[in-house]
Structures are given as structure tokens and as C-alpha cells.
Structures
1.
Amino acid sequence: MKRIVLLIGFCLIFTSQADAQSFLNKLGKSIKETVENTVERNVVEKTEEVTEKALDVKANKKNGESTDDEESENESQDNSVQNTKQEPQQIDFPENFIVEFDIIPDEEFGYGIQFTLYQEREDDPKELNNDLYPGQAGLHLVLRNERWESKGYKDGEDWIEGSASKNPVIREKLNHVILWIQKRRVRVYHQNEKVMDMPTNIYPGVKFNRIRFSGWDRHSEPYISNIKITTASPDTRSKLITEGKLVTYGITFDVNKSDVKPESYGTLKSIADVLKENGSVTVKIIGHTDSDGDYNMNLDLSKRRAESVKNELINIFGIDAARLETEGAGETKPIAPNDTPANKAQNRRVEFIKTN
């Protein structure tokens, strides 16, 4: 039985005002090897440390030098070993967030891989949790080569299950998967389309604070990279339709470039959905930059970025071009001083202004 479990426990700062940072290059065999090597190295280092202490004590006794009480020495060593144990770290997810990652399934990929969001038990947290249903409640998303499966679970309750067959992941190809959690609602996007939408896939009151990928008994070792977790707009419809303005940091670009990055899909999709549901609404898309670099170049860059967003909404999501206009503001309308990286990130934004 092949049992490969990756649990990611980490602290993140959630912000809707900065680009999420990429992390974690690849999983699979390398993860297992890294874990085994790390454990082996720690054991060797600890063994050498204790052995050296024992030899020092023996040498001191032989030379007639005074030594600490053996019982105190043993207690000190025991405490040293105990202090190496670290409490598992966790994150507190908001009610509305997006998880994205790239996956390359291997040729054996059939039963898929399981991605899990869950709420760890406060009284028994585990750094590496290989339980089939970890924590006290959670959500499994299984990526298979012929379908998607989801399962909300909670201690003492029945499963909340969902499945879909649209656009499954493809073996030995790069697949970009987007998972959008909005309170109890679960949406999955792949190949620029929504492939699953479960309005009540999560039990009420669940507070996610851990994630993991598990290949338990699934007979494959896919590679996973570019994991990103970002907050999502809490109510796009309210912001754009009722308030007439939406400021978003979920549409991202490479430095000094205007091409929209793939991880922007979730944000663009939510905006496109609102525009489709409100067919008479027209909007102006305004690009903004920070003050780094040349003024005129920033102005031109902001115009090109706004135009790129417009083209994405037209070409990918089918929004009528007549409903969209663009403008570039460059660095002329900052909402924070351009004095720190965090403040500059606030100024790099895209705005949607309702024009009718």
C-alpha cells in the first residue's frame, strides 16, 4: 500500500491588497526523500550530541575533575530532547478565499490526489496528520483524470458529497486548478471554465486552519507547484452594482508587463459573472501603478494593463466589448504613500467603475 501524505502547516498573512507569493516547487518522490533525509539527519545530530556529552563526562571523571550530578545531567538531556518538539503551526482562513495550484499528474494517475482543507482539533493538533478525515471537520477535493469529487465532513455527521466530469485534469500535462471557498460554497475552475459549484459543500461553523495534499493508497505521484492562497472579494456584486466601484488586487501582472497572469482567472470570472447577471451595466476599467520608474512609462503601462483586462473579459468570458472602456491613471492617483513595499502594493491595482 502506497501511503504518501503531505501536510502543509504554515503561517500566512492574508491580504487583498498585495499579490500572493508563490511557494513550494514540487511534490512527489522528492518530498518523501526530503522528509526521510531530514528525520535521519536530526536523529544522527541528536545521537552525536548526546554521545559527545557522555564522552566529556567520562573524560572529566577519569581526570578527576568535578562533574554535575548525573541525575541533573540526565534531566537536562531529557529536556533537551523534549524541547526539540515544536507545536504544529496553522493558519486561520477567512470565510472567503481562493486556493490555486499547478499539478502535473503522472502516467499512473487514475485514482487522483486528494486536497484537503480542515479544522484541526485544538486538543490534539498533529504536525503530520495522515488520518483519512483529519481534524474535527473539513473538505476533501479529489482530482481524478476522469472527474472531480468533493466531500464535506464533520465528526458525527454524514458526508456532503459532490462530483462533476467537466474538464478533468490531464495526465502528464500542466493543469492550473482554482478552488474558491465562499463560506459554505465551493467552486472549482479548470481550463478557464467553472467545473464544479456546490452551494453547501461545507458544514456551518467550520473554521479552516490547515491544508494538505494526500496520495494515500492512490498509486501515483503527481508534481504540484505554485500554490497560492489569497482572499477573495467578499461581495463583488455589492461593490460593483450597489456601490458603483470595485477595487481589486486579484488581477496581477509581471513587473513592467501588461499580460494578465493566469492566477487572475478567479477574480476575472467573478467580475464577468456579475456583468452577465446585470446585462445593462457598463464599466470603465482603470489601471494604476506605483511611482517606481518613469512617469510616462507608468502611464503607458497602466493603459496597456487596463486594455489587457478588457480583452480577457471579451475573449475568455464573452463580455460585449461595447460595455467596456479603459483608462490608465499611472501613478497619478495613489491611495497610499509610495514609501514602503506594502504601500506601493496598495497603489498597484485595477478599478472597475460603473458608468451607467
Note: The longest helix spans residues 29-62.
2.
Amino acid sequence: MNMGDLLALCGIALAAIVLTLTLKKESPAIAFLLALTAGLVILFRVFSGMGGAVREITQVFAQGGMSETLYLPVIKTVGVAVVVRVMGALSRDAGQSALAAKLEIAGSVLAIALCMPLLQQVLSLIEEWI
């Protein structure tokens, strides 16, 4: 992903914002679906370009002798955070604030669960030092 890609994504977002604001009073359901579609297009374009970056990050960590068990939980947790943030925003846009709050709680619990292997390794490292 480069600066041109980011500008294109901003253009998609801006067009969707203008259209949803125009449609919101007359047809809120269509405005919501338009916002959802624009969000999915943006996320698809971002995630389709991430494959190369993930391979490079994996190679860098492997060259540094770092085990997957150290960085994989962090990457998964970031993924959970992105999904929860997007779904929370969509829920709020649809007027479902309580649902968004529940999603955020579920995401927090999952993030803690995903980081448990990393926490266990840190605790065992501290135990070795002591």
C-alpha cells in the first residue's frame, strides 16, 4: 500500500460519506447499506495488499531468531481490534450502541485470550531470571 492507494481509499470514504448523508433522511436503510459496502470495499483493498507486508514481517522476525509464538499473538490481537472497531462503528451507525458495547467487551476478552501464550512466555522468562 502506498500514498496513492491511501488517497483512493479516502476518496471512496468521502464519496460514501456524501452519499450517505444525502440518503440518510429519505432512506436510512439504503444509507446504512451504502456505508457498509464502502467500508467492506476499503477493508478488502487494505487486506488484499497486506499479504506481502505480513510475509516481510515474518521474514524479519525469523532473521532475528524470534519465534512465531512471540509475535503471532500480537498480530492476531491487532486483527481482533480492527474487526471490533469497524463492527462497533457500524453498530453505532445503525443505532445499536448496546450491541457495539457488547462487541467491544467480547473483543477485549478475545484479545486477552489470544495474548495468553505471550503472557506465559513472559512469566516463564521472569521466572528464569529470578
Note: The CA atoms of residues 3 and 39 lie 19 Å apart.
